[in-house]
């Protein structure tokens, strides 16, 4: 009886807690996992390479395009309006500048992303249409991350890649935010003002865990791309749109298949003559 009462109280206390506290709590383990992905470890060790960073920018471009389009479209939705800060937070334009700096004016034709990025974007667009009240989870995961660890990562990246100026690093800069810490406080209070039913709140918390999971999968996908294709797509002027269309280990490229086909045909013809 006593235990039942205690469980009830803690469930109530849990419900009464602010969304910003709850979301931080439920994503704690995921944050540790994200920090420990190979890509994030390269950043933290000061070993991030230009191909890694360029490839990350490609995925961030697709992700922020989806996220910001959905936030814009739902900007007057009651669960989005309080956390809608395009002037302070929007990243798309900055990423476009960075991509142009590294890839040149035809950067749009050089974008390559792993399938994990496409899945992440698909989810963002889906919830933008079906459950805009969950966008807060995705906006929190990306923007508060960028304003937290992201700030340190930007400085490390500049050193690691030996970039002289801040060119190519505008993704990390938030000119509209004079104090990231104060802004994060404001953002948390706005998150806490969003009115959600218990069911919607649980959904948003689940979505935040999912958002971290998507990021982890994107980072892992990028590392796989780098280990499979090396720097080839970074340094050449390939026009491929998504790496999932590239040849991966375990598959036979169309060229090898054609050569094998010709070989078999030739052997068959020669066999017929021999008869
Ligand atoms: C090298 C990797 C990373 C490092 C070193 C790092 C570090 C940090 C630090 C120091 C904070 C501040 C914690 C606090 O104020 O209590 C933070 C907060 C945060 N990080 Fe990361 N982070 C990393 C990667 C990521 C990634 C990949 C994501 C998500 C995609 C992320 C999302 C967040 C979020 C949402 C917060 C805000 C937590 C809150 O105050 O509610 N971080 N991170």
Describe this structure in words.
The chain crosses the membrane at residues 255-274. With 275 residues, the protein is an all-alpha fold. The protein has a single domain (20-267), classed as Heme oxygenase-like (Heme Oxygenase, Chain A), CATH 1.20.910. The chain has 14 helices and no strands. The chain has helices spanning 2-16, 19-26, 28-35, 38-44, 50-73, 86-89, 92-103, 115-130, 135-147, 149-160, 180-193, 198-229, 232-235, 254-274. Protoporphyrin IX containing FE binds at residues 24, 31, 34-35, 40, 43-44, 140-141, 144-145, 148-149, 153, 212, 215.
Instruction: Look at the helices and sheets and give the structural class.
Output: mainly alpha
Question: How many β-strand runs?
Answer: 0
Q: Number of helical runs? A: 14
Low-pLDDT stretches are 1-9, 233-241, 243-275
CATH topology: Heme Oxygenase, Chain A
Tell me which ligands are bound. Answer: protoporphyrin IX containing FE
Compute the separation of the termini in Å: 91 Å
What's the level 1 CATH class? Answer: Mainly Alpha
Helix content class: 55-70%
CATH level-four homologous superfamily name: Heme oxygenase-like
Give me the CATH architecture, please.
Up-down Bundle
GO molecular function: heme binding; heme oxygenase (decyclizing) activity; metal ion binding
GO cellular component, one term: endoplasmic reticulum
Binding site for heme b: 24, 31, 140, 188
InterPro entries: Haem_Oase, Haem_Oase-like, Haem_Oase-like_multi-hlx, Haem_oxygenase_CS
